[in-house]
Design a protein that fits this description.
The protein contains 11 helices and 9 strands. It is α/β, with parallel strands linked by helices. The protein is globular and about 50 Å long.
Length: 273
Amino acid sequence: MPKKEKNNNVEIVKENYNKNAQLEWERLEGFHFEFEIAKHYLKKYLRGKTVLDIGGGPGRYSVWLAKQGYDVTLVDLSESNIALAKQKFQEYGVQVKVYVCDARDLSALDLSIFDNVLIMGPLYHLSDVEDRKKCVLEAKKHLAKDGVLFTSFITLTAGLNYYLDTAPEQLIHEPAMDLFDRMERDESWSGMAFTQATFINSLEVLPFFDELGFEKLALLGQEGLTGPRLTKIENSDKEVRKTYLEISLRVCENPQYYAYSDHLLYVGKPKDE
């Protein structure tokens, strides 16, 4: 992809979050399978005391991590996200260091080595695979040799799940059919969705991290089995949500069920040298 087009895509994403920081905070307000399942795996695999949250938006994960007692540093591309994050840190009474920076190049920041690194957003938006590699390799520079990396992607089937969940009549229109073409060919899709976005083919995830020197600890669907009916289930009563969460946690690492999720979570560690 030409450099000019790459930079334009990044500016589109930045502008989106500068306009919608509050919406991004509210996106995980209340009960959401994406957040609940992610927290389960964070509790399982987090180590040490320090966390670098790259592309952490207005700080939803950072707040939760800081409240668990971790020393957290948040980096995000959007000035509005960082401004809102500062408000939320004050509101929740937590201390988090913050920086505005592009996830592909953190060299301008005076960052140390962290026990854990989160990339829970940037790979949603980087259309070019080389940019996705840059982002992960930047994270790796700041990850302890025995540290843990948590990275999320939007799944190739997220678009289908959205249509099934909220607007099935839109399936007959473009760009929905383009998504189906990609699904048929087992290819990732990039283009304009809620903003510039990349929907990843799950078959690409493990080879991608293997090439970059990581060993898998877990790979799972963050919505478990709920994607095609996510809105209805998340708005159900507490016992229904609890049951679906318990079932989803039992099967979310099974590859045959990844398609039921809108997001994939990869948990890995650097390979032994």
